[in-house]
């Protein structure tokens, strides 16, 4: 069971967590995030300290007060003093770290990784004493990472072995572990699994221990047919296949962190998305199965702040291979791509989309890769279009429905929305379109109303 920041953010929400976990009959591993908003506050406070902004002390006091409120509101009387003393030691360590950052006037990535680890260190310590009979396990001792493409990626074999070793004596009751935080396999220094890393921690533990189910407890009733903030009539999707859930996440649904799905998918361990604030709701059940759907597809999702690249040329060999090879080697994520060939002109055209924050780097990599071809004319065009978004429809039914790309694009075009690019995913269960960002919300409403209501 994984509980995110909104689930552990207040005394009231943590009482829900306590009741939910203590209501389970079998052995349970509970993975927890930092208190809601604390990770962002830690980053902001470190940034202020680095810049010599003395108001970091006020932010630090806020962090102390948030944790004190949880301790006073939830910790049992017989352990409150001792547990708060332990949390106090961690807070003092955090204060010293902020002070050191202020003195040096600089902060390395390694130091920032250490800063953000404090949120989960403190929340897991307190929650292990809030839940009756719980035992604390420290994730960096068994989630080990290596550096790849600038990211901390779990060493799968080592992590699997260490998880099974750490939990070897655990057969009943409740285990509590901090999510998100990990350690480097070689140096032992604190690392983290990035945004959504608590989901990933829970999945790694579930897969290694052969759990019956992985429950992700959050603040929504499950996967929705669309973002309910844009479409109030969006419905909960009761069942999804693993592949459908992966595609919805990869193309913008922020219910769970996409890499979460891979470890349990390979072990065929189902995932259930549940709402801590509405625990009676059945949620969304995700498994390795095909569930009939009365609609043309399961749902629609989107990604904002996208850049569309187009490369045209007569490059010998494969233009696409060189493009995606250089981007992949340098850790640039390609959201979607389309390719076309002109036999008459012996010319290829490749269009692909990246997140806006990666566009400048992608442009630099491509300019360097095709420097000679841009000079001799073998690459005729290398262009970028900004202020774009992607709209994606996802569902197993798309494998069997002919002409859906034309239908959806036609629906948008008939309502004055130009479609700049269309791509079908490798899984064949998603269809993505690139639009002007200004057209996105109206397009989401239109597609949902036309096909899902």
Secondary-structure blueprint:
Blueprint: E1 2-3, H1 11-22, E2 28-32, H2 38-50, H3 56-74, H4 80-104, H5 109-130, E3 134-136, E4 144-148, E5 151-154, H6 156-166, E6 174-178, E7 181-184, E8 190-192, H7 197-209, E9 214-218, E10 239-241, H8 242-250, H9 261-266, E11 271-275, E12 284-287, E13 299-313, H10 319-329, E14 336-342, E15 347-355, H11 356-369, H12 371-376, E16 379-394, H13 404-414, E17 421-424, E18 430-436, H14 440-451
Helix pairs in contact: 2-3, 2-4, 2-5, 3-4, 3-5, 4-5, 6-7, 10-11
Which labels suit this protein?
6-stranded antiparallel β-sheet; alpha/beta; 453 residues
Count of separate DSSP helical elements: 14
Oligomer: single chain
**Biggest pleated sheet:** 8 strands, mixed
Termini separation (Å)?
Answer: 33 Å
Proportion of strand residues:
15-25%
Structural class per helix/strand content?
alpha/beta
The count of strands amounts to 18
Helix content: 40-55%
Placed side by side, the strands forming the largest sheet appear as: 3-6-2-1-9-11-12-10
């Amino acid at each position: 069971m994984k509980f995110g920041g909104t689930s552990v953010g207040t005394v009231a929400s943590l009482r829900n967590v306590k009741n939910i976990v203590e209501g389970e009959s079998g052995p349970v591993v509970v993975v927890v995030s930092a208190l809601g908003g604390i990770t962002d506050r830690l980053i902001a406070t470190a940034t202020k300290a680095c810049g010599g902004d003395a108001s970091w002390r006020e932010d630090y006091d806020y962090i102390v007060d948030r944790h004190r409120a949880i301790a006073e509101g939830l910790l049992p009387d017989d352990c409150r003093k001792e547990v708060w003393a332990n949390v106090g030691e961690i807070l003092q360590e955090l204060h010293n770290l902020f002070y050191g950052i202020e003195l040096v006037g600089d902060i390395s990535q390694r130091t920032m990784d250490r800063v953000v680890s404090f949120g989960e260190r403190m929340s897991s310590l307190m929650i292990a004493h809030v839940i009756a009979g719980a035992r604390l396990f420290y994730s960096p001792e068994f989630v080990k990472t290596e550096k790849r493409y600038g990211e901390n990626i779990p060493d799968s074999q080592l992590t699997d072995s260490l998880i099974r070793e750490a939990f070897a004596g655990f057969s009943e009751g409740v285990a509590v572990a901090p999510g998100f935080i990990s350690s480097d396999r070689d140096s032992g220094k604190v690392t983290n699994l990035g945004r959504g890393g608590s989901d990933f921690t829970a999945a790694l533990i579930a897969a290694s221990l052969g759990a019956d189910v992985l429950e992700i407890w959050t603040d929504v009733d499950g996967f929705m047919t669309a973002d309910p903030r844009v479409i109030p009539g969006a419905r909960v999707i009761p069942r999804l296949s693993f592949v459908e859930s992966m595609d919805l996440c990869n193309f913008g649904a922020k219910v769970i962190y996409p890499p979460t799905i891979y470890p349990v998918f390979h072990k065929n361990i189902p995932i259930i998305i549940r709402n801590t604030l509405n625990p009676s709701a059945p949620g969304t059940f995700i498994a390795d199965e095909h569930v009939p759907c009365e609609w043309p597809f399961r749902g629609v999702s989107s990604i904002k702040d996208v850049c569309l690249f187009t490369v045209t040329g007569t490059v010998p060999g494969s233009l696409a291979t060189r493009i995606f090879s250089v981007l992949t080697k340098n850790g640039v994520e390609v959201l979607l791509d389309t390719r076309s060939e002109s036999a008459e002109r012996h010319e290829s055209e490749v269009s692909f989309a990246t997140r806006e924050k990666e566009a400048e780097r992608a442009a630099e990599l491509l300019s360097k890769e095709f420097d000679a071809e841009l000079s001799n004319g073998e690459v005729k065009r290398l262009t970028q279009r900004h202020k774009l978004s992607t709209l994606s429809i996802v569902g197993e039914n798309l494998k069997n429905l002919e002409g859906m790309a034309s239908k959806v694009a036609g629906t948008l075009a008939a309502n004055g929305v130009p479609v700049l690019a269309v791509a079908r995913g490798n899984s064949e269960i998603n269809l993505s379109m690139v639009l002007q960002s200004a057209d996105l919300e109206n397009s989401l409403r239109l597609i949902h109303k036309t096909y899902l209501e």
